[in-house]
């Protein structure tokens, strides 16, 4: 997984009102995937199980690669007189 956040904060005034401008970019990238197989197993007796029996032939095999990329751009103003 990769994540990067970069922001710049600038200050300016419009008349007597001061502002802060926050501008930034965020990038997240994640690689993931799923793989596996299926097949038949030997029947098992619940009251007298026999362990170590061989598995049957593989009937289905899959490998599903996947990735996600997320970009976000931010641009907003903040007035210092507003206290939260």
Main sheet characteristics: 3 strands, antiparallel
Strand content: over 45%
Order of helices and strands: EEE
Number of helix segments?
0
End-to-end C-alpha gap: 33 Å
Query: Strand order across the biggest sheet?
Result: 1-2-3
How does this model look, in words?
The chain is mainly beta and 84 residues long. It has one domain (2-38, 55-78). The chain contains no helices and 3 strands. It has a 3-stranded antiparallel beta sheet with strand order 1-2-3, with no helix packed on it. The model has no long low-confidence stretch (mean pLDDT 87).
Question: Topology, pairings included?
Answer:
Blueprint (H helix, E strand, L loop, with lengths): L1 E13 L2 E23 L18 E21 L6
Antiparallel strand pairs: 1-2, 2-3
Describe the structure concisely for a colleague:
The protein has 84 residues and is an all-beta fold.
List keywords for this structure.
mainly beta; 0% helix
